[in-house]
Specification:
Blueprint lengths: L5 E10 L9 E6 L4 H7 L1 E9 L1 H22 L4 H22 L7 E2 L1 E7 L2 E7 L3 E6 L2 E4 L6 H7 L5 H6 L19 E2 L4 E2 L5 E5 L1 H4 L4 H10 L2 H14 L6 E10 L10 E3 L1
Parallel strand pairs: 1-13
Antiparallel strand pairs: 1-12, 2-3, 3-4, 3-5, 5-6, 6-9, 6-10, 7-8, 7-11, 11-12
Length: 267
């Protein structure tokens, strides 16, 4: 078994913010300890932003990261199909629990999941949490928000700047757990990554308060652990009116096995 010519260094942090009493975000980063599983399935990073009230939002987001984690690594299909099916399974679990428990009725969650596997990235996505790529001094949004304002921007009804300030910007059109079936957004093909690339996953508690150029500058300049902490602090300094979740995966040129830092929970 040949070690990859890079390390994957991951830091994930979730924070309650400045105004919420509970944290309805969740995140998970996984590096399998078994080298064979690592080779076959790669590294997984997931961010979820729950909705549906205090109990519902917390339950939905935590179910999402738990089920996606287990389902992805248990699935024997190729990476892309396994990742998509993991989100579909999470959707069913959340929906069935919401139907069966009145206090959880209407709960749902966004979910953005990234797999880094043998030099290729795959993403499965539902909702308005986001995945960005920082490469060669530029930042690229790699997912499209499933939100009402994004659909209006796509139709030319409003500009991106208008959408950013719109009072209905938090209305999402697609979420895990809201319906028996969900359409999972996938890339048309795997995305090749290389040493120096950095991937940023975040909930809207970050991207609504911190500009993309600011995200780029922080992630490009800092190690993942420092970048996640700085971005959370920046969002909090601007009001932190929502929960804030940030995960950074950095591809480092090194003939070592991928590794990760543990998720941090603050606030």
């Amino acid at each position: 078994m040949i070690d990859p010519p890079y390390q994957i260094v991951i830091s994930a942090m979730t924070d309650v913010g400045c105004r919420r009493e509970s944290n309805q975000d969740a995140t998970r980063s996984v590096v399998p300890g078994d080298p064979r599983v690592l080779l076959e399935k790669g590294v997984l990073v997931v961010v979820a932003d729950g909705m549906g009230g205090h109990a519902g939002g917390e339950t939905a987001s935590r179910l999402a990261v738990d089920v996606v984690h287990r389902a992805y690594y248990d699935d024997l299909q190729p990476v892309r199909e396994a990742l998509a099916d993991a989100l579909r399974k999470a959707n069913r679990v959340i929906y069935e629990m919401a139907v069966g428990e009145p206090e959880l009725e209407g709960m749902g969650t966004t979910c953005t999941a990234l797999v880094l596997h043998q030099g290729l990235a795959e993403c499965a996505h539902v909702g308005d949490s986001r995945l960005y790529l920082i490469r060669d001094g530029e930042i690229y949004q790699m997912t499209e928000d499933h939100s009402m304002v994004r659909s209006l921007v796509a139709r030319g009804v409003m500009t991106t700047d208008e959408a950013r300030r719109h009072t209905d910007r938090n209305i999402i059109l697609r979420a895990l757990g809201r319906r028996p079936h969900v359409e999972v957004a996938l890339w048309q093909s795997p995305f090749p990554f290389c040493a120096g690339d950095k991937f940023l996953l975040c909930s809207d508690g970050l991207h609504e308060l911190v500009r993309e150029d600011e995200m780029k500058d922080v992630v490009a300049a800092e190690r993942p652990h420092n970048a996640t902490a700085r971005l959370v602090a920046l969002a909090r300094s601007r009001g932190g009116y929502d929960n804030i979740t940030v995960a950074v995966a950095s591809i480092v040129a090194d003939a070592g096995m991928p590794r990760t830092r543990d998720t941090q929970v603050a606030g």
